[in-house]
Each structure stands twice: as C-alpha cells, then as structure tokens.
Amino acid sequence: MKELDLSGLSDRQLAGRILESIRSRLERLQRPIRLMEVCGTHTVNISRHGLRQLLPPHLHLLSGPGCPVCVTDQKDIDLIMELARERDVIVTTYGDMMRVPGSRTTLQEEKAAGCDVRVVYSPLDALAVARENPQRKVIFYAVGFETTAPMAAASLELAVKQGLRNFFMLSVHKTVPPALEALLTARDVALDGFILPGHVSTVIGAAAYEPLVRKYRVPSVIAGFEPVDVLRAVDMLLAQLEEGRAEVEIEYERVVTREGNRAAQEVIAEYFVPCDSVWRGIGKIPGSGLELQPRWAEYNARVQFAVEDLLARLPEPPPLTKACSCGEVLKGAKLPPECPLFGRVCTPAAPVGPCMVSSEGSCAAYYRYERREREVAAR
Amino acid sequence: MCLAVPARVLEIQGDMAKVELQGNVREVGIRLVPGVKEGDWVLIHAGFALEIVDAELAEETLRLLEQMYREGEEEMEGRP
Ligand code: SF4
C-alpha cells in the first residue's frame, strides 16, 4: 500500500527555490501583477503559512468570492430564520452558517430563543435527524459550491430511496465559473490571473473553465493547498504571463483531472438544475445557482413551505452596515484591513459581516493570521 | 467550506466505507468514487469521499519539482 506523504510540499528549501523563480519572472515582467485566489481555503492557507509576506511586494494576491457562506445573499439568510421559526420544523445546516448575521438575528440566536436548529457535519446527518424525528419536518439548508453540491445530491438520492418524507432541502448552492465571468465582465478589479479552487475543480474538472479562459484570455491554474502547491501555481501563472499564454493548467494533479469527477457531475445533474442566483457584493448572476429539479419538488423546501410568499412578506434587508466593506472584499476590490471596521468594531467575537464569521472568510483569515504582522510592520 | 482532508480506505461496505481519518475511524459515503478500492487514499468532504488521491503521482510530482527547480537554479548560476 502506498503511503501518502505530502510533507515535501511544505519543504522550505523547495519553497525557497520556487520563490527565486517567482522573483526572477517578476523582474522580467517589470510590472505589478495581481492574482486572485478564488477559493476560501486558499485564502486561509496563504494567510496561515505567511505566503503573502514571502512574496515580492508587487505581486498582489487578492481574495475572491470563494467562501460560500460569505457570498450567500442576505435574503436567503433571512429566509432560513423565518423557516426556523415555524413550529414543527428542524433546521439543519453546516456550522459556519450559525453565526452569520441576518438582517436582525443569527441562526445561533434563533436557537437560543427556542428554535430547533442543529449543526451537521454532513447532509447524511440531516437524514438521520429526519429519521429520528418522523413527526417533524427537517430542512437541510444546503450551502456550498460544486464541492459540496454532490454530497447534498447523493443524500437526497438516499432520502428518496429510503422513502423519507419529512426531509426537505433549501438549496442555495452556487457555482464558480459564472461568478468568475461576472468578475471579469464587471472590471472592478484588473486581474492578471486566477488561482483556481482545488476541490471545486476536482468535481467540475479543468475543462469547465476553458471557454471562460479563452474568451477573456486570463491565465488560470488549479492549485492544491500546501505551501509548495500555491507557490508553484503562482510560478506557473507568471510563466503563462511571460510567454503570453492564457490556459487552464492543473497544478493539483494528484486529485484534479481535465474532465473532473463524472459520478459527482452526474448526481448533481440528476437532482439539481442551474438557476439565477444573487451573490453578496456582486448581485444576481445568471445560471450561477443550483435549484432542485422540478421532479423533486416534494423535497424542495422552496416549494413545500410557500417560500415565495414568505420572501414577499420579508422586509427588504437593510444594507449590512454602511461601513462594512464585505461586498468589495469579496470582489477583491479591497483588502480586509482597508475596511474601516476591521479589527476595531468588527472582530471574530463580534462580527459585523459574514467575511469575519466564516472560518474561510477573508476578514477572519486576515484577523487570525496577519493582523499582528501588520501591526508590527506599522510600528 | 470546500476543505477536504485525505483519509485511507479501510473497508468497503456497499455505498459506505470505513476510513481512517486523522487517527480516527469514520464511515463515509463512497457514492461519488465508484472505482475506489480498499487501501486507496481519498479526500473526505462533508461525510463523503470526494475523489481518489493519486498517491504515486503525488510522489512523482514532488520528485519532478525537486529536479525542475534545482535545475532552474543551476541554470541561473551558470548565467553570466
Ligand atoms: S472587517 Fe467586518 S465589516 Fe469590514 S468588510 Fe470584513 S466583515 Fe465586513
């Protein structure tokens, strides 16, 4: 049996040599380069390993809309609170959603006030809750990108097989390529390349980005999550820029293929259909959401709980706080410390915006790993 | 939220498998990795195996990287 030894991917010497290569490429390019890491897990790892500080100052790494919790629309968050207040309902969702501020409360506060809200690690756990509570209606609040959507679909498949009639799904799943296209067309930020998400790409495959990359001629590399992975992806992007190429390359070859995970794609297509979706900070993006297929309407919380009426009754959510810059942070237009609330009013203990709540939010990552270094640097 | 962690597949039972995940044994769904075998490395996300990790390729890549960047360095040193 083969061991999986990834320690070499944190090797300092190797990282140092890749950094050398990055430096000489930058010298040859002779201009500042702005790369966006789309995935929240990359953001966290870049912060945690201090990669930003290692890279030359005119190489900018911007975080993108890659944290599913952070980009969930305010209205979709308010909606799940409303559903949680219904008497016979149990809401199940991933832990990161609990503290995200809705217009008035959070799911955690709703829970403290007596609503039945439960954190699950997997949608399979939500099925178990439904089996154990046959008298109650169990709603799984399904958040996530293409990485997470297949798990929701496979769980729904099980619910159907097992004839679970008290299990419902409220899907706010989102898909990454349409959001990248929206960023590229909006032109709020000039980007020289994308560090593409490793696990989203595991599912959809490199080929899914090819039309986009060709159309906008933006160099793109799918990266793994170890320090050497990220540095190598940066080096590969700079090589594309130097050579005037714009392609989708795979750095995370040990997991990602061109076609992606067929079984995962099939189960997504069986249960979900693309729909328009509103992203915090970006707005409505055509075809960027996943809604349940009409033939699974019995399991669709949107259909079974008259959600449209609920939504119509909900007051327009107030703008977060005027000073919260989440919208700009999510587009890469601002770095977290550039938000006037960062670290003063807004902290992980008292978050103002979702980017400070989620463990993968850019503001939370900066607060956790890079604040002290900045303070020291400022002194 | 798209975090996925490597685990070794211990035992396959239908649509589920026992895996060793950071020292603990857990049950995960293997619906998304039809070709999985006992002994394989998989990435776990939200209670399911998301993909099989090519452990040989991981090793191979690392070797290539060592070579590539070392050679790059020598080349640079050789430059006037
Ligand atoms: S620091 Fe807080 S208020 Fe500012 S953008 Fe981030 S989450 Fe929003």
| Relative helix content of chain B | 25-40%
What is the SS-derived class of chain B? alpha+beta
Could you give the order of the helices and strands of chain B? EEEEEH
Integer-rounded radius of gyration of chain A: 21 Å
How many helices of chain B?
Answer: 1
**Over all CA atoms, what is the radius of gyration of chain B?**
18 Å
Strand content of chain A: 15-25%
Total number of helical segments of chain A? 18
What's the CATH superfamily of the largest domain in chain A, by name?
Answer: HypD, alpha/beta domain 2
Instruction: Tell me the domain tally of chain B.
Output: 1
Describe this entry's structure for a reader.
The complex is a heterodimer of chains A (379) and B (80). Chain A has helices at residues 12-29, 40-48, 51-54, 68-71, 74-84, 107-112, 123-132, 149-161, 176-186, 198-204, 210-216, 227-243, 262-271, 301-304, 307-313, 326-331, 354-357, 362-378; strands spanning 33-37, 59-63, 89-93, 117-119, 137-142, 167-171, 173-174, 193-196, 220-222, 248-250, 272-279, 283-292. With 379 residues, chain A is α/β, with parallel strands linked by helices. In chain A, α6 links the parallel β3 (89-93) and β4. Chain A starts with 11 loop residues before the first helix and ends with a helix. Chain B has one domain (5-77): SH3 type barrels (Roll). Chain B is built from 1 helix and 5 strands; from the N terminus they run βββββα. A 5-stranded antiparallel sheet of chain B has the order 3-2-1-4-5, with no helix packed on it. Chain B is elongated, with a radius of gyration of 18 Å. At the A-B interface, α1, α7, α8, α10 and α13 of A face β4, β5 and α1 of B. The structure holds iron/sulfur cluster. Iron/sulfur cluster binds next to α16 and α17 of chain A.
